[in-house]
Amino acid sequence: MMSKNIKSILIIILPIFLLSCGFKVVNKKNEKLIFIQNIIVEGEKRSVNLLKNNILLISDTNSKNIYEVKIEIIKKKENKIKNISGRVTRYSLSLFVKLELKNLEDNKKINQTFLRSLDYNVAKVHSETIGNESSATKNLIKQISSDIVGFITLSMRNK
Fold it and tell me: What does pTM read for this prediction?
């Protein structure tokens, strides 16, 4: 009889303690802290457009923080591995991104650079190699977009 009462009390009290633990979500996906009024881009058109679209997803016209964004992308492809006959079997693809955020209210600038690299294999058919390069570029853009969005979010939250 006593153990049933204790179990009943624990079942009622335990959820109350768990719900009031003070847990707070740190990275809110729907939180929009910045309005990007203008994006100035330089570099390879396809990469720039993908990156620009991903960054604009965090822009909110109702935000008090109004910024202009400058992005410069430098894409570099290097031979990574050659076989005995001197043919390239693997390339290394690097994307270097310079980001400048300019506050349009007080003209303060925040600069940051991002670098990501990825290797891809040379296929037997040239069109497959081009497909591998395209896939590697898209993956790098996704990674850098995530880095930039995280950087902007943290910069605006700490402001």
Answer: 0.74
